[in-house]
Amino acid sequence: MSISVQNISKKYKNVQALQNITFEVQEGELFGLIGPDGAGKTTLFRLLTTLLLPNEGSASVANYDIVKQVKEIRNSVGYMPGKFSLYQDLTIEENLTFFATIFGTTIEENYDLIEDIYVQIEPFKNRRAGALSGGMKQKLALCCALIHKPKVLFLDEPTTGVDPVSRKEFWEMLKRLKQKGITILVSTPYMDEASLCDRIALIQKGKILKIDTPDTIVKAYDKTIYEVASNQMHQLILDLKHFSSQYSVFAFGEFIHYIDKNDTFDTAALRTYLQEKGHQNISIQKTTATIEDVFMDL
Amino acid sequence: MESVQEKIIIVENLTKQFGDFTAVKGISFDVHKGEIFGFLGANGAGKTTAMKMLIGISHPTSGQANVAGFDVQNQSEEVKRNIGYMSQKFSMYDDLTVEENITFFGGIYGLSRKQIKIKTNQLIEELQLGNIAKTKVGDLPLGWKQKLAFSVALLHEPKIVFLDEPTGGVDPITRRQFWELIYAEAHKGTTIFVTTHYMDEAEYCNRVSIMVDGVIEALDTPKKLKEQFQVNSMNEVFLKLARNIE
């Protein structure tokens, strides 16, 4: 087992950041922690990278205990915190050299691991980190986290605030790292990224709500979701919320996802109701759940 | 929308150079009164630079922009008084309470004491902040901060509000509640100018522009953009546009 967490709890003054968390990540697995701001994701990362001590419970990373074997863990893991850990006044090359030196290695020694990421930023290697775009900083931070060839990689919200193109590229990089045998624990608030992980844990308010493969989680969702659209989407949200048997109403891109309380829900009744409210071009269709639908119903 | 659309933002050949780097390359577009206008682009495409010019805090190198009836080059103070702005980094003071923040910003926007009092009560009631009116903003969950920051940006009843990635990092339910606030505000006639990296949110906009390398590469309704690029989602439109550049 690459990461094993047993009944971990962590409290800050009067905030219970993590409550009795238990999960395991296998070697070479790409495991996602999916949850919003304040869910406890960062606390969990800090515990597993030995930067914080738990109040209760135990955990091991790469078979080292997070309390007793701090040095061993620090040598075996790479950590990319949510806020960039780079030295703003050092250039790309200087940052990378610095991190390599700290871990007693050189850029050359593990170059094969970072090569396909580093070549994308190499043309700017003499530019200071502070002057890089968000996407480039992200790539450099990943290189720095990889330079000592860690067994386990911790990535705390690496794609927050990053545009869709760079996000896609980043996940392609993670896939390649995984193929090289590195275990990856990654957190994200973007639900669409969940489907790119081998397994995910949905986390909210310090508790894990569900752990499984993205596919299984979606398939286990037993409510029927309808995509609804009309010519006036804002009014449609308001009117759907006032429909007597509504269970939930959420905007979902160009449609609204509607769930009814009754199993015997008849779309014709809803259509009539919306027509009476003055909607035109009404469409109501069954659709399949996404991770985001499941998450919102937990 | 009405057939004759009043323009509230008019941008013509707007350009910004930093040394020998041109961040915004002569962009031109209009925003209609009361519309939700999505301003999209990859990191580094020039969105923030363009937005800074539109809100009157950065001078264009060349070209023109008229925002809420004022020229951004010569009347930047009037522009600032007639717009609201909320950034991803929250322009709220963490050490002040909810009430104090509202009072403070009301003062900045030139509201009278009486108006501030009315507005404060109104806001606290509308957002159901009664229980936390005396809480420091720094202790609020991110979702609450965002809703509050949005409302504060609207205190002086601006004609346009600029939202720079307003929903980053929050949970999916809060994100949707935030958009319901945006819809309601647009419904009152306020123009919304919004940037986001969530492509499902792009679908909620009346029209969307996509900036690539300092240029507006596409501008239309989400529906027409999807037809034009023959794809099913704005995410695919975005990926197609940005990929083509490489």
UniProtKB/TrEMBL annotation, chain A:
InterPro entries xrefs: AAA+_ATPase (IPR003593), ABC_transporter-like_ATP-bd (IPR003439), ABC_transporter-like_CS (IPR017871), P-loop_NTPase (IPR027417)
Name of the protein described by the UniProt record: ABC transporter ATP-binding protein
SUPFAM superfamilies tied to this protein: P-loop containing nucleoside triphosphate hydrolases
Domain ABC transporter: 3-230
Gene3D superfamilies per the UniProt record, alphabetical: P-loop containing nucleotide triphosphate hydrolases (3.40.50.300)
Molecular functions per Gene Ontology: ATP binding
Keyword Methyltransferase in record: no
Keywords (A to Z) from UniProt: ATP-binding, Nucleotide-binding
Coiled coil regions, renumbered to chain: none
Naturally occurring in which organism (per UniProt): Flavobacterium luminosum
PROSITE patterns registered for this protein in UniProt: ABC_TRANSPORTER_1, ABC_TRANSPORTER_2
Transmembrane segments: none
From TrEMBL, chain B:
Keyword Hydrolase attributed: no
InterPro entries for the chain: AAA+_ATPase, ABC_transporter-like_ATP-bd, P-loop_NTPase
Keywords: ATP-binding, Nucleotide-binding
SUPFAM superfamilies: P-loop containing nucleoside triphosphate hydrolases
Coiled coil: none
Pfam family of the protein (one): ABC_tran
Gene Ontology MF: a single term: ATP binding
Residue ranges constituting the ABC transporter domain according to the UniProt record: 9-238
Protein's name in the database: ABC transporter ATP-binding protein
Native species: Flavobacterium luminosum
